[in-house]
Amino acid sequence: MVERFNSWWESITEREQQLSLVSVFMILIAIIYWGIWQPLSIELDNSESQLQRAQQTLLSTKQRATLLVSAGVEQGPVVNKNQNITQIVTISARQNDIIFSRIINRNEQVEVQISNVEFDRFINWLSVLNTQYSVSVLNADISRADAEGYIKVSRLSLGY
Hints:
Blueprint: H1 2-11, H2 14-73, H3 85-95, E1 102-106, E2 109-118, H4 119-133, E3 136-144, E4 150-159
Antiparallel strand pairs: 1-2, 2-4, 3-4
């Protein structure tokens, strides 16, 4: 095969050889551009847009987290402390379409676990608990869920 190429190469004129070299060079440049450079450039653009979306999500989450913290710290209206906190938490959760994985009653406190809940719905529920029933967040262990906009609540302690 090499011998056939060498014999062909020697059989063509010098101008044809130069044209062949320029053609090979142009083909190599095209392969590098469309095979390597352009896919990397597209991937970089995609990564930058993903980063911008993640930063926007982080900013939004930080703003909403402030609301979450204030829901646990602020004092709402005075409510009769003799109300059963478990009933209050359960009924208000049902009204807000929040389903508990686990609920534990501990004297004046309730500890719940929620496997998957929309973040906005969760914040609204905590606001209702705080403003209408004076139930505050005592302790929370929250992590990000697989679906965008959803969280997992491993432990949420609520009390008066």
